[in-house]
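User: Need the bound-state model for coenzyme A:
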Amino acid sequence: MRVLLLAHAFNSLTQRLWVALTARGHEVSLELDIADAVSLEAVQLFRPDVVVASFLKRALPEALWACVPCLVVHPGPPGDRGPSSLDWAILDGKQEWGVTVLQANAVMDGGPVWAFRSFPMRAARKSSLYRNEVTEAATGAVLEALEKLAAGARPEAQREATARPRPLMKQEHRRIDWTKDDTETVLRKVRASDSVPGVLDSLGGQEVYLYNAFLDATRRGAPGTLLGRKSGAVLRATVDGAVWLTHLKRAARTGESEAEAPFKLPAVEVLGEAGRALPELAEGWAPIGYQRAGDVGLLSFDFYNGAMSTSDCLALRDAFLEAARRPTKVLVLLGGPDFWSNGIHLNTIEVASSPADESLRNIEAMDELCRAIIECTSQLTVAALQGNAGAGGCFLALAADVVLARDGVVQNPHYKNMGNLYGSEYWTYLLPRRVGAKQAEAITQNRMPLGAQEAKRAGLVDECFPGSPGEFVSRVKARAQGLASAADFERRLSDKRARRATDEATRPLSKYREEELAKMRLNFYGFDPSYHVARFHFVHRLPHAWTPLHLARHRAQAWKKQAALTTRVT
Ligand code: COA
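Assistant: Bound-state model below.
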């Protein structure tokens, strides 16, 4: 079928659908939902059999759904209606939730149902549920809906009597009363609002939005007071315990320009002097963790949004070197349950006094981490991707000897979208040695998301395992134990040492790094400001003004036709 994806942004769910639909042989194109006239033009150009609206922030125009079947992905079970479905499900403490694929009509979320899936709820951020359970359920439901549509079936009408409309969730519903709300309620309110819009609150004398809350099971204090800080996060007392808040966003002030608009940063950084004055606590929330199970070491790193600042990269490098000194045979890099890594931290770069200098520091720190992994000859290393990876994060995984990925993972192994960034992380060494020069060129230039199976076919991933992030980790542990106890373990390790020595003699790692960084310096300090402009747009979440042509294939085709006509005429 010809499927036009219509979305507010090419977000994780839309990328996953792109990958899943393409893998099933559908002809897929994307239009970002910018204006009704633009969406209608896309339909005229592409002539799709169906429009799949995967992620919208507004209703579809009648002119669109009247001329082509439009399937809307609603992140709630049949009957649920409204723009804050998941938010309410988390706040209300629902045990089970779902995703419905319905056909758009004049009633918002009230159209006939093509397919739905349900799933058990988990105590997690809204964005985590969205990236995992919702994405999994939505992919299954969309594929089922398309099969039914192709077979000439009809959707099932919704009964008005069973409709459960819920309003937009506002800050008054999310607000925390630190003198009354228990820890569980505080966690639920923050989770229901994370990553958008956050819970508006007052902290350290500032109006801020709260994100990424974790329970601290041991400490107590006067409700609402800040008890300390650790790894950039702050600890705040509730009536019956305390919670860590890792990220904050200062509330916008009236009259602020676009360039002054606040964005999410580590909590201590947002609180400034008030944050730094807090006592540094030795124990508590930590983004990096190490566990040992017999011959296998497991290093996890759960950086918010997969973004890795200079200090994150160096802390992980040190933790990796420390883990490599332990007497294990296999060292598994587990990333976090939502993201493996999305490369350097564009927000902390944006806020730095010199973003160019901070970009260079951050990429050098990332390179140090990659080098430590590449040069590790004491263990076999495994990168285990529970969650998605983007840009430098994908190449960080290739530094390991074995790459495992969860089936649902989507990678974006390219830098170009960030203002033509050249990229480092020794990608010029790591990528061609895995996939060959031709394929490396295609992957980095095409700028397309890759599903786990596609990444495996391309050579970026060695093995894929199904299931949730938790099930995936269990399989990874078993696989790592298998590697450690295999009869050929010593041979594999000595082959690895020999290969590293040969590669180093052929072309030292330092040479790859030097050449990559020379190009990156041009991105950071050269006359072309594209990277700085793209980063500004990305960090401030500015909406796209047009759909990139590599995704809007209908426009690229129309463009080519037009160009051919013009050439013929001239
Ligand atoms: N630095 C800071 N924040 C980052 C980030 C990075 N490198 N990568 C992702 N994020 C944040 C986003 O701002 C967003 O924040 P919010 O939802 O809390 O507002 C969140 O992570 C999710 O990102 P989003 O872009 O919405 O996810 P996606 O699934 O739609 O797209 C990527 C995934 C990887 C394609 C996209 O996030 C991306 O292009 N990231 C930048 C990668 C990059 O260029 N890194 C630098 C070069 S190494």
